[in-house]
Design a protein that fits this description.
By secondary structure, this protein is of the alpha/beta class. It has two domains: about 160 residues, SPOUT methyltransferase, trefoil knot domain (Alpha/beta knot, 3-Layer(aba) Sandwich), CATH 3.40.1280.10; about 60 residues, Trp Operon Repressor, Chain A, CATH 1.10.1270.20. Helix content is about 25%, strand content about 15%. The protein has seven helices and nine strands. The strands form three sheets. It has a five-stranded parallel beta sheet, with helices on both faces. β8 and β9 form a beta hairpin. α3 crosses α5 and α6 crosses α7. The termini are far apart.
């Protein structure tokens, strides 16, 4: 046993709730802080990795806020059922529209109706692929609501009724949306001013200008017979910038032809050009 107070992982404002929530801090969030609201059957999954490192520190500082909305209390009957058999038959269960709708109504309390300022997102493998541009768009808003699916998915009617944006983390299937939610929130939160400390780092990383990031090196200068490229030790900033740009282009062309074609189209270049990269 210990009297040591557990580490806080952020600040939650108080809002109407079917079930009282435990505040993650005894200090209110900074006014206007970007906020993620997560509708989930497993609120204990959060903050998870979001409570670590720079995102966790930013959460404690109130630079962003995290609120989980437990779907179970909105359930029906004695056992608080949230799902039912799929219409038309088939395996698995489907989250009910009326149950999810109640949770979405609560999540909407205190949020702007403008979806540009506050997107409502369902994490689904059939959604639009998540990318850096989406993370940047979300970071420029006031926050977002994420619906974490389970079982065979969510009744299509609730997605249509609320005009929910469907987003996919990739071409694979998870048992639920919680892991994907943490990844999407992490990618978004790190773009919020002051979260990383050095905002310039987000301008030079992969996808910031449509290219993969160039290779990185640090000490020792020689390791296992492999040396740092001489240009990086030259102190010649223009040559270093040219080298990094060339390497970014080469890696993108080799590893992500789709990104390379899009980059060339935007720059008015031929993706099949033979010039040395």
């Amino acid at each position: 046993m210990t009297d040591e107070k557990p580490k806080s992982h952020g600040r939650l404002s108080i809002s109407a709730s079917v079930k009282p929530r435990e505040l993650m801090s005894d200090t209110p969030r900074i006014k206007g802080a970007w906020t993620a609201k997560i509708i989930t059957l497993f609120p204990e999954a959060f903050p998870g990795t979001l409570g670590l490192s720079l995102t966790g520190k930013a959460l404690d500082m109130g630079l962003w806020a995290l609120e989980t909305i437990d779907l179970r209390p909105f359930g029906d009957g004695r056992h608080k059922n949230v799902d039912d058999n799929p219409s038309g038959g088939g395996a698995g269960m489907v989250l009910r529209a009326d149950i999810v709708g109640k949770a979405l109504d609560e999540a909407a309390i205190g949020t702007p109706p403008d979806r540009a300022k506050w997107p409502v997102v369902y994490l689904s493998p059939r959604g639009k692929p998540f990318d850096q541009a989406t993370a940047r768009r979300w970071a420029e808003g006031d926050g977002l609501t994420l619906l974490c699916g389970r079982f065979e998915g969510v009744d299509e009617r609730v997605l249509q009724h609320f005009g929910i944006e469907e987003v996919s983390l990739g071409d694979f299937v998870l048992t639920g949306g919680e892991i994907a939610a943490q990844a999407l929130i992490d990618a978004t939160v790190r773009l919020i001013p002051r979260v990383l400390g050095n905002q310039a780092s987000t301008e030079e990383e992969s996808f910031s200008d449509g290219l993969l990031e160039h290779p990185q090196y640090t000490r020792p200068t020689l390791w296992e017979g492999r040396a740092i490229p001489e240009v990086l030790l030259s102190g010649h900033h223009a040559k270093i910038a040219d080298w990094r740009r060339g390497m970014a282009e080469r890696l993108t062309k080799e590893r992500r032809p789709d990104l390379w074609r899009a980059y060339c189209a935007k720059a008015g270049r031929d993706p099949d050009e033979d010039r040395e990269l």
